[in-house]
Amino acid sequence: MHRDEIARLLQAYKRAQASGISQRDFAASQGIAPSSLQYWLARQASIAAPPEAITFFEGPVGVTWLHQRPSWPKPSANDPDGGDPPPL
Q1: pLDDT tens, position by position, for the chain (88 residues)?
Q2: Please, what's the b/e burial string for 56-87 (b: 16 or more CB within 10 A of its CB; e: otherwise)?
Q3: Please, are residues 22 and 12 in contact by the beta-carbon 8 Å criterion?
Q4: Is the entire prediction scored with pTM above 0.70?
Q5: How far apart are the first and last CA of the chain?
Q6: What is the DSSP letter of 67?
Q7: Closest by alpha carbon to 7, among 67, 49, 69, 71?
């Protein structure tokens, strides 16, 4: 499963969770194993970042945005910045 699909599923689960659906029932309704849902939730919970950043970068909008970003240049011996990404 692609990262954007996982992001959409997690977003849908968080909405459904507010209505009291269990992880097992949600996973069954989406055709995924409950252990996959539990793994994705645990992985997201383990990220050491502000909640707002996690919500953005782990959500569908952030995943799409990350995939649209250009590749950063590779560092070279002649590059005084060491190949750091350009400022946004």
Answers
A1: 888 788 889 889 989 999 999 999 999 999 999 999 999 999 888 888 888 887 787 777 777 777 776 666 666 656 655 556 556 6
A2: eebbbebbeeeeeeeeeeeeeeeeeeeeeeee
A3: no
A4: no
A5: 30
A6: H
A7: 67
